[in-house]
Amino acid sequence: MAVLRKMKARQLDRPAIEELFQLQRRAAIDLMNKVGRTGDRVSGFLVDRTSLLSWVERVAKEESWQLSRRQATNEELSRSMSEIQAVRNAMAQQGRNPVSFPMVDEALSADIASLPSNITITPGLITVEVSSELTGDEAAIAACQLLYKLGIAINNDFNSFSARLRDDSLTVKSDGNCSNIPDFQKDFLHS
User: What predicted TM-score, i.e. pTM, was given to this entire model?
Assistant: First the structure.
């Protein structure tokens, strides 16, 4: 950018773009087309130096933002993985094996409204119901999956979670069904 700012020429041709950006002929032409070239094959294609400088600054800014966003995401992922590893190490030192179970992608984007109907949030009480048809490890793994989904939903949608815990006038299951209120008021809530 500094070189572009110091240049005295008002316009640059393809060979100058090739030299400045260390590009091959076709790549220089593509860059000139992106910036907005002028001219024709006879007189030669040119690009305005100030337009080129603006384009380079915009691309640098966008790439800088994307790079910092990617870096922040990587740092958060590393922090989360470190926390998970620390929990696993502590469990291993105590001779306990972590429970593992598959999670589908929608669980990772869960919010309070998307929770299954067997998770109920009421003021002072969160209920997770596991099917009575499941037994032993199946029931335990199903409970773990539901609790994990609830934790993710709370993390993704804390305001809705907090609102449900505060409202002591009714109980709303995650499927929208209401209890603890007269039937005539249920229609009002669903409208």
Answer: 0.43
